[in-house]
Structure formats: structure tokens, C-alpha cells
Amino acid sequence: MLDLIQLVGFPLLYLILFNGEFDYSFVFEKPYNYFTYLVIGTIVICYFIVTYFRIFLEESQIIFILILLGAGLFINLIIMYNQEAFLSIFNIPILLLFIMQIASNTTQLTSKKYSK
User: Domains in the chain: how many in total?
Assistant: First the structure.
């Protein structure tokens, strides 16, 4: 539940309060808004899948999800860079959560591969 609040709730509240004040706000306007929400939603769903349902996934699926989480890192870094204040309250924890998942899953994948 805490992950859901951190990844979805706080950023949505932030967008509602400060929408249109930053340079990247064009991605939340038509015709780009549906694509942007689709990408962000897909990345959040991938985070939850790799966090809670990892045991049901094959290696290729995990690698694909980790690539999408890497794209989520890139998107959050771009958003942080375009804001007036470089350190954002909501983007830093999301970055850390994504980095943690990428690192732990990469470690598990490589240790399993080398243990065979």
C-alpha cells in the first residue's frame, strides 16, 4: 500500500497542484496526454509485477520489465531536470525504488545464472 501511495498518489497530487507550471507540462496536454499516462501507468504496473509476482515470471519477462523500469528512471530524471527546483520531493523516492528493484533483480538474475 505504501508503494502505491508513493508511486501513484503523491505524484498525481503534485501534478494536480502544480500542473502547467513547468516546461514538461506539454506532455500532459492533448494529444500527448493519453500516451504519457499510458507509459507512466505501464511502468508503475511493471514495478508492482516485478516486486510482488517475480516468482511467476521467466527471465526474459523480468529483463523486459527491468528495461521498462530503466525507462521510468529516465523519465523521472528528465522531469527532475526540467523543474525549477532540481531536487523534487516525489521524484527522488521513485528513482530510489526503481534503482532498488533493478539492482536486486539484476543481482538475482546474475547469481542464478552463475550458480548453474
Answer: 1
CA-to-CA separations, 103 to 18, 34, 63, in angstroms, rounded = 32, 30, 12
- Answer whether 71's CB lies under 8 Å from 46's CB: no
How far apart (Å, rounded) are the C-alpha atoms in residues 9 and 54?
24
CA angle 34, 12, 104 (to 5 degrees): 95
H or E segment to which residue 58 belongs = none
Spatial distance between the Cα atoms of 6 and 11, rounded to a whole number of angstroms: 8
pLDDT in tens, the chain (116 residues): 566 665 666 566 666 655 555 555 555 567 766 777 788 888 888 888 998 898 999 999 999 999 988 888 888 887 777 666 655 677 788 888 889 999 999 998 888 766 65
Domain that holds residue 85: 2-115
DSSP H helices, 6-90, are: 10-18, 33-52, 59-82
Q: Which residue is listed with cell 500532459?
A: 28
Is the Cβ–Cβ distance between 50 and 66 less than 8 Å? yes
